[in-house]
Design brief:
heterodimer; A: alpha/beta; D-Maltodextrin-Binding Protein, domain 2; 19% strand; B: 508 residues; mainly alpha; DUF112_TM (chain B); transmembrane (chain B); membrane (chain B)
Chain lengths: 325, 508
């Protein structure tokens, strides 16, 4: 106990000294290697984004940037690790919709709060989803789905990569806004859900645009609508769901860079400046086009307000659907 | 694309200088991690995964797959020399491999396993080439109920094919199933049996369970025993390695039978090389005219299981490449590697990525040839490397295991999990409970539950789908036959035994 108290005092003293040395630190940050925690195992778009962003940050800030994978529980294990790290700007999180908004809506026992325990550097990218059906199915438009779901409650099935994913939330929001009830069929990952959609065993999916666009191109799947606020460049000619019959509907998944709450503003600003520059690079732009990402690059204050609005939005949906754990 | 075209495309891919290089790197790493008890193919592939990030996906897969099957060659080396399996699948090779080493025949034993491994792999690769596309055509028909029945068959087969008491094996399968329940429920997102530990939200790590039950348990078991005799190693000549004329007879047929068993078992999703080698060993022992020689250095006892585990590793690619079902934990990581490279393994893989599919398969040939050439000159080196005293060797192995487990998720918690499973595994050994069924239950359990519940969700609660779906019905039938084959012989024996008693009673 004594040891612990001593350590706490030491930490407080260190924090005080950091605060006093604030202006000086601003000129010197970063002085050492920066770690970006990816809350998923190697693989997937978050890992790739973190590694590309890290490369650019490293070149601009003249310090090594290490990407560390800490996967588990839909990104919350890694997010929790960063939430509890020192707010010195040297441990950052590549957070996503699930880890930094939906999880707070879904779980009472989440050991951190996306709004209180993080200072966002920037919401880096967003990407809408696509409502896709098997091309052999009778659904030809969003309106067809709405009509069917209204006449047949608890019948229309949509597959997702799991409870609390942005795909799941997009489906729940669809049900909430249209006043229908759909059957949620969770899978472990998108691939298995896609396989059942191709095999005609589920009706639809709110799917990742990049993954589904290949099947749409070869005619096996049909995209009825995108969940964003405008047409997506990988799915030309596909209306938004809002245009196609559900006026207020909009759902995105997004990824952003987060620091633990209490990180000096100077560090956040330095990082944000580097992120903005990185987003303009030819290489990043090419990757975004290939992956179907929309560039956001929100500044810290705007990002913070955005997270608050997202948590509020998904809490409403989760409560309406009765999904709270 | 027919097989000949595939052959051509594949060779063109596998014989580029970069593919050859990555294949060589992969099989070399594989051989080393196979020989070193502790870091297995699973840990090595997980570690190598981020390194392959910027590689061409085909090259990356060629390398990672090379680690996988390369480890099967190396795994038997430690079994033979140290009675400590380099990989879990090589455990059965200890039974006859270690006695051979004690008779001073270690070079012969290792040479024979290299040949068995090559033959086993070759036979299975031919099957992958010939049948994987056919399975792919069929793959889209598989629904949740069909997966459930396939997994059920895997579970039933696993529990019935283990040597020893079927009751103990079955109880260990159930224990494994329970372990698999820990974590987040797929259907509701609720945490189950996590006891408030956030680290358990994804359940136990497969790496930690496997390394604990096999690796750590092995070390604890051996610590209680005195150091085995370390052979004084002289220069190893070709003559020491070549089997004599009479010995070839004990090698050829068991190798072919082992290859056949391994290919079949490996292609069944949810089985894997461990079960394949057990089955091959059990078969050889059962059909042998001199079963007494087994366990005392019979060449059949290393030939069949080694051919079987290599064959099963190669044929395990059939369900992964054509169905998107990983046959075992390591194939699951390989599948993750494909996903990270933007390739979704599933029914479309062979048609959508023919270059990768055939390139990978052709690289299996290249890699296995490399392994054969690589392993024979290395025999002398291994024999020396592994004659380090236990008090130096075991701490080193434990470090490798901890590193291997930690590296999977960068999570210290997993190290405690592996140590816990090590102690559990030791206790299980002491009381004669086999560890392999635990691992199978652990892997298959969550898949069984997930597919069962999904099938019920989609059928709106109608359980008859398991029998009305033709694929599911076939696998359900096979499961019943398997179960029957276990219980019927016992039943018949009991009836036969009772018959004379009844006659006696009549006489009275």
């Amino acid at each position: 106990m004594f040891k612990r108290t001593f350590l706490t005092t030491g930490a407080a003293a260190a924090a005080l000294m950091t605060a006093l040395a604030g202006p000086l630190a601003a000129q010197t940050y970063p002085e050492g290697p920066i770690t970006i925690v990816v809350p998923f195992p190697p693989g997937g778009s978050t890992d790739l984004l973190a590694r590309q962003l890290g490369e650019s940050l490293s070149a601009q800030l003249d310090q090594p940037v290490v990407v560390e994978n800490r996967g588990g529980a839909g990104g919350t294990v890694g997010a929790n690790y960063v939430a509890q790290s020192d707010p010195d700007g040297y441990t950052l999180l590549m957070g996503v919709t699930g880890s930094n908004a939906i999880s707070a809506a879904l779980r009472d026992d989440l050991p951190y709060s996306p709004t209180e325990n993080f200072d966002p550097v920037s919401i880096v990218i967003s990407s809408p989803l696509a409502l896709v059906v098997n091309s052999d199915s009778d659904f030809e438009s969003v309106q067809d789905v709405l009509d069917f779901a209204k006449e047949n409650p608890d019948t229309f099935t949509h597959g997702t990569p799991g409870v609390g994913t942005s795909m799941h939330m997009a489906g729940e929001l669809f049900a909430l806004e249209s006043g229908t009830s759909l059957v949620h069929v969770p899978y472990k990952g998108s691939a298995a859900a896609l396989q059942d959609l191709l095999g005609g065993r589920i009706d639809a999916m709110f799917g990742d645009i990049l993954v589904t666009s290949e099947y749409i191109a070869n005619g096996r799947l049909t995209a009825l609508g995108v969940t964003g606020t405008q047409e997506h460049f990988l799915l030309e000619g596909v209306p938004t769901i809002a245009e196609a019959g559900l006026p207020d509907y909009a759902a995105f998944s997004w990824q952003g860079l987060f620091a633990p709450a209490g990180t000096p503003t100077e560090a956040l600003d330095t990082l944000y400046g580097a992120v903005s520059t990185a987003l303009e690079s030819e290489e990043m732009q090419a990757m975004f086009r290939e992956r179907g990402f929309l560039v956001e690059g929100m500044p810290p204050a705007e990002s913070k307000a955005f997270i608050a609005s997202e948590v509020e939005k998904w809490t409403e949906v989760v409560d309406a659907a009765g999904l709270k754990q | 694309m027919n097989i000949l075209q595939g052959f051509e495309t594949g060779l063109a891919t596998a014989l580029t200088w970069h593919a050859l290089m990555y294949c060589f790197i992969g099989v070399t790493i594989g051989t080393f991690v196979g020989v070193l008890p502790g870091i297995g193919a699973l840990a090595a592939i997980s570690l190598a995964l981020p390194l392959t990030y910027y590689l061409d996906p085909t090259d990356a897969l060629i390398m990672l797959a090379g680690i996988f099957y390369g480890a099967q060659y190396g795994g038997s080396t430690a079994s033979i020399l140290l009675n400590l399996p380099g990989t879990a699948t090589a455990a059965i090779t200890c039974l006859d491999g270690y006695p051979l080493a004690q008779q001073g025949k270690a070079p012969l034993a290792i040479f024979v396993t290299a040949i068995n491994s090559f033959v086993g792999s070759s036979i299975a690769i031919v099957l992958v080439m010939g049948f994987a596309p056919a399975i792919a055509e069929f793959a889209l028909e598989f629904g949740a109920e069909d997966y459930f029945s396939v997994m059920l068959l895997g579970l039933v087969a696993a529990s019935t094919l283990t040597i020893g008491s079927p009751m103990k094996a079955l109880s260990m399968v159930v224990f494994g199933l329970l372990l698999g329940m820990v974590g987040t429920d797929v259907n509701t997102g609720q945490f189950r049996f996590t006891f408030g530990l956030f680290e358990l939200a994804d359940g136990f790590s497969i790496v930690a369970v496997a390394m604990g039950l096999f690796g750590v348990a092995e070390i604890i078991s051996n610590i209680r025993q005195p150091q085995g005799v370390i052979q004084k190693v002289g220069r190893i000549r070709m003559k020491d390695m070549m089997p004599e004329r009479g010995e070839w007879r004990q090698i050829v047929r068991p190798t072919l039978r082992g290859s056949a068993i391994g290919s079949f078992v490996g292609a069944l999703p949810g089985t894997g090389p461990g079960i394949a080698s057990l089955m091959a060993y059990a078969t050889e022992k059962r059909i042998s005219k001199t079963p007494d020689r087994f366990g005392k250095g019979a060449l059949e006892g290393i030939s069949a299981p080694e051919a079987a585990n290599n064959a099963s590793v190669q044929s395990a690619f059939i369900p992964m490449l054509s169905l998107g079902i990983p046959g075992d934990a390591i194939v699951a990581v390989l599948m993750g590697a494909m996903i990270l490279h933007g390739i979704t393994p599933g029914p479309n893989l062979i048609n959508s990525e023919p270059q990768m599919f055939w390139g990978l398969i052709m690289s299996f040939w290249v890699g296995n040839l490399m392994l054969l050439v690589l392993n024979i000159p290395l025999i002398g080196l291994w024999v020396k490397l592994l004659s380090v005293p236990y008090n130096l060797l075991y701490p080193g192995i434990l470090v490798f295991i901890c590193v291997g487990v930690f590296s999977a998720d960068n999570n210290v918690f997993d190290i405690f999990v592996v140590l816990g499973f090590g102690v559990l595994g030791y206790l299980m050994r002491r009381f004669g409970f086999p560890a392999t069924p635990v691992l199978l239950g652990f892997i298959l359990g969550p898949l069984l539950e997930e597919n069962f519940r999904r099938a019920m969700l989609l059928s709106r609660g109608d359980a008859s789908v398991f029998f009305t779906s033709p694929i599911s019905a076939v696998f359900m039938g096979l499961s019943l036959i398997f179960l029957g084959s276990v219980f019927l012989p016992g039943l018949r024996q009991r009836l036969l035994r009772r018959a004379p008693v009844e006659m006696n009673e009549d006489d009275d």
